[in-house]
# Entry
Amino acid sequence: MSGDPVRFLTALSQALSTLGLYGERHPASARASDEAYARLVELRRGAARLDFTFFPDEVLFGRDLLPELERWEWSARLARSGIERLEITANVSADHFERFVEHAAGLLGLSEAGAGLWQDGPEGIRIGRVRLERGEHEQRTVEPLPVATLVYSLREEREAVTWVHEEVGAGHAVPLLEAYGVVRSLSLAMHAGQAMVLPLLQLKEFDQYTTTHSMNVSVLTMALGESLGLSPSAVRAFGLAGLLHDLGKVRIPREILAKPGKLTPEERRVVEAHPADGARMLLDGSDPLDLAAVVAYEHHRCHDGRGYPRPHYARERHQASRLVHVCDVYDALRTRRPYRDAWSSGEALDYIHERAGGEFDPAMSAAFIELMRKWDDRTALRESA
# Structure
């Protein structure tokens, strides 16, 4: 691929802005559209298709983030107008591209003439919203127009997390590329359909607990980070830490992890070693993950100093650890285990509220409870519709 996706998107935004300023018939609008088309042709060389996904604070090209466009104004504008996804699936003529620019300008409210032009055009450019597949066999309504949709079952991501745990359990370094890829996918799925939080993945088998729990904690941590106003890069870093917070559990024998009864003192010592084990694993690689290691070490420490491991001297936990802690406990309570049934969301949130200031950071507890009650209210409204 010889082109630059950032140059193309910048040229596209300039074409839209120029059209909104001067109108469709002005020579300046034509020149700006031609420039954007030239950048598209460059980008299309050697590429079978181009996929862009727009969120309020970031842009994905395929599944890769474009850090140069973090907090890019046009990404938020496109997403609000219904263009969360742009797919270019074939060669596009200059005339067709110009019609696309006019249509996008209409959706953005920059032009009145372009809003109804797209239905009659040939395929090659598709636009639409992102949505999440909630089950592999769910029946879905197919849009009659060639709109773009990005559908995730997260099956591949589950398999990737399982493989990461297997690699680390075998003594290999943490596969960073796969871990980062899962976090990007979870971030994308979290925003699907403009939802604030991804509905928690359901545990199908107890053997899947570590994988499913890690993904849930990651997405809950990113949702909480966004609600607190963290930057997109910080949200992803916290999400990676959430994904890897329990990595040390690969050292715990399965018969202890899945034991239905009370642990013996020796079994308890084995379990309580996993934060330090995880931190060492995350620091031992050629590219140490400092933040993830801190979170792995601190995620069972409490706001009032209780928990494990006990530090040699008192110090405040990292902000990421405080976020992951509350998300970790919430998902653990919401999951059925061999020794107890799953708690309802309300029961889990009441538990967090009652222990705010003791087990949990009070500010993080309040923010998390507010976030999840809003999500529960939206879920209830959808189910009653």
The first helix runs from residue 5 to 22. Confidence is low (pLDDT under 50) at residues 114-122, 132-151, 193-199, 381-385. The chain has two domains: 5-128, 155-384. The beta strands are 50-54, 59-61, 64-65, 85-88, 125-128.
